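Notes from the pairing session

We agreed to fold both candidates in a single pass and log them together. This is the raw record for the first candidate, unedited. Please don't reformat it; downstream parsing expects exactly this layout.

Candidate A
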Amino acid sequence: MTTLTLAEEMEELSSAEDFLNFFHIPFDTKVVHVNRLHIMQRFHDYLQKAGDALPDADNAAALRTVYHSLLNRAYQDFVESDALTEKVFKVFKMQEPQSTFVPLEQLLGG
């Protein structure tokens, strides 16, 4: 009988709900429905920030605990706030619309 590693188990997960269920995190389906991409991106961002501080892959129990904590934190960000406030994606981080001036002479080839 072969036992899957944590990474192999996670490869089978395909939705935010799958991840939340896998890590036994209770969730409101309305929150996840509206914010699924934001939650998963925030989870990814938290993992990236943790970087070298993450436990080694051979310490599955510790790694699972950290993943649970970071995913729960990502989910809670959107329970307590919203996508516009959290600004996870670049499009939300942009300031005022950008404008570029092109002189009429340049358009007319002059």
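Candidate B (folded immediately after A)
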Amino acid sequence: MSQVQIAQKEPYAVTIEAGKKYAWCACGRSAKQPYCDGAHKGTNILPVLFEAESSETVYLCGCKHTKGHPFCDGSHNQLP
């Protein structure tokens, strides 16, 4: 089993567009954080696909430990 890498210990504030599909990086290896660039290949970690319901600013998890993929739930506050 592959380990998740912490991309950063705070969320990414991003603007998403209604109806657009996104692939959130769940492994922490992507160079295009917080989105997937395929760097998970060779691991058992897959990106989280989602479609924006509305155009808005959201906070996508940067630590990759959230229970509410892909959105930040404050899990980074519990990391060492």
